[in-house]
Amino acid sequence: MSTAKVTYLGNLRTECEHLKSGATFITDAPIDNNGKGEAFSPTDTVATGLASCMITMMGIKAGTLDISLNGTTARVTKTMAANPRRISRIDVEIELPTNVSEKFQKIETSSSYTRLEQILILSITDALEQTDADIKSERTAIIISTTKGNIDLLEESKKNQFEQERVLLWKLGQVIGNYFGNPIQVIVLSNACISGVLAINTAAMMINSGQYDNIVVAGGDIVSRFVVSGFMSFLSLSPKPCKPFDANRDGLSLGEGAGTVILSNHKQEKENIVFLGGASANDANHISGPSRNGEGSFIAIKKALAESRLTAQQIDHISAHGTATLYNDEMESIAIDRHEMNDAPVNSFKGNWGHTLGAAGVIETIAMLSEMKENILIKSAGFEKLGVSKEINILSENEKKSITTCLKMASGFGGSNAALVVQKV
Hints:
The protein is an alpha/beta fold. It is 24% helix and 25% strand. The protein folds into two domains: 3-33 and 46-264, Peroxisomal Thiolase, Chain A, domain 1 (3-Layer(aba) Sandwich), CATH 3.40.47; 273-424, Thiolase/Chalcone synthase (Peroxisomal Thiolase, Chain A, domain 1).
């Protein structure tokens, strides 16, 4: 019988103060066919989740947000001088926390790293300190998920700060790999907003194939003029904190952050949360709009459940993509309804810290693991009244409940959709 383990160390502090700080969790148990004694194939599937995040948020006219995961706190105040519903001009002022550079200087005195590289290095370093994975080993790989990488280097004020090729995604991977002395070519995975979930799925597949013993999955994206102007051109930014699945939702909030999850096939001697399965699907509907019948998301969930050898009714909790745009939330509600998971508690974390783009799938999976560890369902911030056509169970209050099996959903531009399933065993 194959074995699997997840090592998860971390904490989450939002408005839900139930979650403990600095908790350490290590899991280990055999994987079988939903307890029926049949070993999964391929063998030695492992997911080690060491949570480490830095999160900031924008998308509000005025206000602050204080978020801490694993003791790393970022604070941001953001003011939008232009009405996001008017695109006659783009005039954005972004105040970003200074403690990122301060924290980075404690581990690296060189100034030759971009802001994104700094938060990725901080997150990965924090995660590695909580595991026995050897980052310098040929049996340990790195996957980075991001949508835009160092796109801010295209701004006029930053063009001469770094070499031209630093803006390229492969170069971001090379810089991170070189910093940690990893001998394997770093994989940079960029597939819109499903990048984070897809990176975790890819890492699990590579470990299952026997290529590596450990894979460090780090997701990161930053707020930049390029990103802000892009979403403003879609008229999709809300002037206030977003309200996923709510009847009064009017667009998304952007977030900035990095998170790290380490997958491994090394056995531990304590409880486990195991990666059971994951999948992706493209609905081929539109370059930016999702399928109106949720087809891509439905297929991704169906395939993830099939790989996990579970039924939809065995899902205890769903962490949705939940961007708070009209079409995304409606589409997800349809996909959930088509799988008859209407009673499963659903939340979106984007009301807490915004949409972190290529990092979202990683950061939100970390938060979901925190829910599982603490047996607490975190409410979907901003939600008051159901605003989608299907009767799904959006969490309006924090709830203490035993959670065993969870589904993470993700969707993005280009018709992309992904899902993954984890289970506490």
